[in-house]
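User: I'm writing a short methods note and want a consistent example. For Guanine nucleotide-binding protein subunit gamma, I'll paste the sequence; you return only the structure tokens, no commentary, since I'll be parsing the reply automatically.
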Amino acid sequence: MSTRGGGRQSMSELKLRRLLEHNQRLREDLARPRVKVSEASASLIAYCRNTKDHLVPSVWGPVGRADDPYGQQATGKCCTVQ
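Assistant:
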């Protein structure tokens, strides 16, 4: 009978430890800085309006070869050997 009592004690200690760990994780989540959805969406809209995307020429217009970071660079060489 004493082993059952000891088993129950260890089970309750295990449950308590799990609850304390879960409580700690919840406190860490609560302490995490939050941004309102309206602020985040306004920031995203401002970024999209101010950052030129060369892959969307229908919005930003045609891109010159010198300005296109995704185009081939005119180096005169066809390949490089390392």
